[in-house]
């Protein structure tokens, strides 16, 4: 059995070829797609976060709206760039959204990827301390966020408050019990995955990672997942961790699918997502369902993960993306033993 969700980058463009021509379109259609995915029996609706871009950015209003419109589906991010975040304010937003959703948030966080502007987090008022990097800053923000989510009081109360306080030191409110266990880290390396395991976070691995062996992406990710689980066991956490993998997978069911994705089958590519860091970019899968099943059986990382996130072309509209999800749920997932 495997949880299956979708991952949307929330692109929008004023182009006549796009079904999402404004930020409003992207947001409202994201809600509609989550509702449709829940009705189709999918398990998760996840959203990418990018700043200074014509994409989804501030995630919590969207997650709360989806939480109010659905009842079962997991709602998450992949990922929130912690370089941009005030961890205490984020804890308030996350707690509120999780309470609205009835405890269904699954928040992916990370250092983030290269953004649209240079050091964009500086415009948000953040800078790493002297002698540290933006990576250090992101991890520090994450550590504070995780600590606050535990719900322990830490702030000294005013002896003459406007409203009566509960006894003892105060915590960030609203607090949502259990959210701390539903935080994931988007890891680009094995070492970062091991750090996430030690910190008690679940693991998200995307359609790319830093190249550490020259092997295909799915093999490198499978190695990463095994390293994560070993580190988790060593840390002695009581609960079982979760692991998600993102993939671009399209079942070619009709002429429309073939026109959009019939030529998309590809191999992994190696390149530079950052100036000095070589990365491996995963292939897309696009084929008739029976062929697709045989291809996916060879993907070692999918086999290792408990959650599969299907990247969706959100600019093609809600109806088409619901069709993409339904095709996988109906014609691929049962044959793979995921349902």
From TrEMBL:
Gene3D superfamilies: Luciferase-like domain (3.20.20.30). Pfam families: Bac_luciferase. GO terms for molecular function: oxidoreductase activity, acting on paired donors, with incorporation or reduction of molecular oxygen. SUPFAM superfamilies: Bacterial luciferase-like. Residues 9-258 form the Luciferase-like domain. GO terms for cellular component: cytosol. InterPro entries: Bact_Lucif_Oxidored, Luciferase-like_dom, Luciferase-like_sf. This is LLM class flavin-dependent oxidoreductase.
């Amino acid at each position: 059995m495997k949880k299956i969700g979708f991952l949307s980058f929330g692109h929008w463009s004023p182009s006549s070829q796009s079904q999402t021509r404004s930020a409003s379109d992207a947001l409202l259609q994201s809600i509609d797609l989550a509702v449709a995915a829940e009705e189709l029996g999918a398990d998760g609706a996840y959203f990418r976060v990018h700043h200074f871009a014509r994409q989804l950015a501030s995630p919590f209003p969207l997650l709360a709206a989806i939480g109010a419109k659905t009842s079962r589906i997991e709602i998450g991010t992949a990922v929130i760039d912690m370089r941009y975040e005030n961890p205490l304010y984020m804890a308030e937003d996350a707690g509120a959204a999780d309470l609205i959703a009835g405890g269904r948030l699954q928040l992916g966080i990370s250092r983030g990827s290269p953004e649209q502007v240079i050091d964009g987090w500086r415009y948000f008022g953040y800078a790493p301390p002297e002698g540290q990097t933006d990576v250090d800053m992101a991890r520090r923000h994450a550590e504070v966020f995780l600590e606050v989510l535990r719900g322990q009081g830490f702030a000294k109360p005013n002896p003459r408050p406007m409203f009566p306080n509960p006894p003892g030191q105060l915590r960030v409110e609203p607090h949502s019990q259990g959210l701390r266990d539903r935080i994931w880290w988007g890891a680009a390396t094995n070492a970062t995955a091991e750090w996430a395991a030690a910190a008690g976070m679940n693991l998200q691995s995307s359609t790319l990672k830093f190249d550490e062996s020259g092997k295909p992406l799915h093999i490198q990710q499978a190695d990463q997942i095994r390293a994560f689980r070993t580190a988790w066991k060593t840390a002695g956490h009581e609960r079982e961790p979760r692991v998600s993998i993102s993939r671009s997978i399209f079942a070619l069911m009709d002429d429309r699918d073939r026109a959009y994705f019939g030529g998309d089958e590809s191999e992994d590519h190696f390149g530079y997502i950052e100036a000095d860091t070589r990365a491996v970019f995963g292939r897309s899968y696009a084929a008739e369902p029976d062929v697709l099943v045989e291809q996916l059986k060879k993907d070692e990382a999918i086999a290792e993960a408990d959650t599969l996130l299907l990247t969706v072309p959100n600019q093609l509209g809600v109806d088409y993306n619901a069709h993409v999800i339904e095709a996988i749920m109906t014609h691929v997932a049962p044959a793979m033993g995921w349902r």
